[in-house]
Amino acid sequence: MTELILRDIGILTLVSVVFAIILVIAQKVLNNYGILKIRINKKRDVEVQGGNTLLSSLADKQIFIPSACGGRGSCGACKCIVTEGGGPLLPTEKPLLTKQEIEGNVRLACQVKVKSEVQIEIPESIFNIRRFRTRVTKIEDYTYDTKGITFTLLDPDKISFKAGQYMQLESQPYAKMKQKVVRAYSISSKPQDETSFQLIIRLVPEGICTTWVHQYLKEGDEVYLTGPYGDFFIRDTDADIIFVAGGSGKAPIKAMLEDLEIVGCNRKMTYYFGARTTKDLYLTEYMQHFESVFPDFQYVPVLSHAEPSENWQGRTGFVMPYFKERIENPQNTEAYLCGSPGMINAVTKGLIEMGVAKDKIYYDSFG
Amino acid sequence: MKQTTKEKRIEHRLQPGVLTLSGFMGTDKRYWQEIVAADEAKLEELGITAEEIADRMQYFTDQSWDLFDRELELEGKFSVETEVVRGKLPCPFSHAGIYRKAFTILTRIDTGESLRWSSLNLHLIRDHHFFEGIGSPFRLNPEDLVRILF
Question: Is A72 in CB contact (< 8 Å) with chain B?
Fold first, then answer.
């Protein structure tokens, strides 16, 4: 009897093992998509190992589509047009795409798996994006919650960008953080510095990447960044310029002014910087020095929560009421805004009411 | 408690260092389902629904959304401001959508009591009845919400 039971157990075990082996082999065969072609902008082909996401497959070929969440499908930044081979639209993509985008074959590169030959369309500027190995060479405290970080390039050792563009910083695991995260920050230094660049990073409450930067990052550390990204840059016209920024939104405007200082600029320019209190002001003297660099430039800090004890002699409240001091010809005025969506909305509304054309208002929103 | 794979995945995403630095559970040792059940029971006792609370919070957030760095006085007894910082967060329950890192601070002028909530808090309360674990930096007690918001 015992012998029979043992024999049955043996047979069952053998059958289970055989099935398991068949399953593993089948999985390997079925999931092996082989080498597949991604055709980009109908003129360039790259060959990738099938089965991975479009985002990671392209990154393996040094083609970096913007992604602020590291491919988790939460930021919606990695949009690209997939004209063939993307498979059906996934439920994870729908909330991040508009009706028009869906109709225009826009997909999230982090959600599309390369399982057959794929045809995509991406902006040509993406080919300029690289992943840089850098060394942190300077960390400056600007305020109690804002730091300026200078990264010197190691590999590649040069970068080409437009003032106003941004980089994506990869944090490293720390404390309870088990994995790296990727976050976007504007470049705050001039593009003529080809071997290094600076980012201005404000500590965000509970922010994974900003906490890493503020509490763990040290001078001498090696850090990886990808970029440059974005289309927030100064248009080459002769129009007057209004800059408006708040908090770390100062970064791209600083880069633009440093760039204009080198290339030369005779345009009438005014820079309104909104902050809560004097503790939130930084680089004030540096910004004021541009008043002697350009023929017609004014730096106007405006505080929203100045305490009487601060003895603030400057402007207070919203920035908008002060526009009329400097905007003389709204039809010939461009605006460059960087800050929270609330600030962008309110300032845009104020500028349009003054007669500035909506299509002359350029912005980089934190949202 | 026996958890399904989906529930385990949610449990993981609520932990520190996954979606946010401190996570959503704080020092609470209960399962998230137990936290939701306990807070739902408290809401019933208080005679209010999570949706009604979320509606009231959304009202204050909407009113102050475009007033960057400025407080707004409402109904003669509330001071409210909303600050938006860089970044967005996904829902730990894998619900569709992402939420701006926008923080609304509401202060009762008459009592000085104050509440702070994020856009994600609003979603978690409305759609998941999740007020976060005790000790979480963004935990909102239903009793406090009812006392201060109305």
Answer: yes
- CB-CB under 8 Å, B100 with A74: no
- Total CB pairs under 8 A between chain A and B: 97
Q: How far is A122 from chain B (nearest CA, A)?
A: 24
- Which of B24, B27, B61, B85 is the best substitution to test chain A (most A C-beta atoms within 10 A)? B85
What is the fold of A240-365?
Rossmann fold (3.40.50)
Q: Of B13, B21, B82, B94, which to mutate for an interface test with A (greatest number of A Cβ within 10 Å)?
A: B21
Domain boundaries, chain A: 1-32, 35-126, 129-229, 240-365
Chain A residues with CB under 8 Å of B101 CB are 204, 207
Task: Identify which of A196, A199, A175 has the alpha carbon closest to the alpha carbon of residue A187.
Answer: A199
Q: Under DSSP, is residue B116 helix (H, G, I), strand (E, B) or coil?
A: strand
Angle between helices B50-64 and B32-46 (to 10 degrees): 90
Beta carbons of B85 and A205 less than 8 Å apart: yes
Strand A118-121 relative to strand A130-141: parallel, antiparallel, unpaired?
unpaired
**Contacts of A283 by beta carbon, 8 Å cutoff, 6+ apart:** A142, A250, A254
Beta-bridged to residue A108, according to DSSP, are A79
Between CA A206 and CA B102 the distance in angstroms is 12
Q: Residue A185's closest CA among A128, A141, A142, A232?
A: A232
Is any Cβ of chain B less than 8 angstroms from the Cβ of A89?
Answer: no
- For the A35-126 domain, the top CATH level (class) is alpha beta
Helix (H) or strand (E) holding A252: helix A250-263
Nearest neighbour of A204 by CB, restricted to B15, B22, B86:
B86
Is this complex's ipTM strictly greater than 0.85? no
Residue of A nearest to B101 (CA): A367
List pLDDT tens digits, range B92-127: 987 767 788 889 999 999 999 999 999 999 999 999
Q: Which CATH superfamily is domain A129-229 in?
A: Translation factors (2.40.30.10)
- Residue A39 phi, psi dihedral angles, 5° rounding: -95, 120
Min Cα distance B33 → chain A (Å) is 23
Q: Name the helix (H) or strand (E) containing A9.
A: helix A2-30
By CB atoms closer than 10 A (0-12, 13-18, 19+), residue A37 is middle
Provide the residue type at A275 as one letter. Answer: A
Q: What is the pLDDT of residue B89?
A: 84
**Averaged pLDDT in 10-residue chunks for chain A of 367 residues:** 77 80 67 88 93 92 83 81 94 86 95 94 90 97 96 96 94 86 92 97 88 97 94 94 90 96 96 94 96 97 90 91 93 94 88 95 81
Alpha-carbon span A203 to A148, nearest angstrom: 11
Taking the C-alpha atoms of residue A56 and residue B21, their distance in angstroms, rounded to an integer, is 25
User: Which H or E run includes B85?
Assistant: strand B78-90
In single-letter form, the type of residue at position A268 comes to K
Q: Which chain B positions have a beta carbon within 8 Å of A70's beta carbon?
A: none
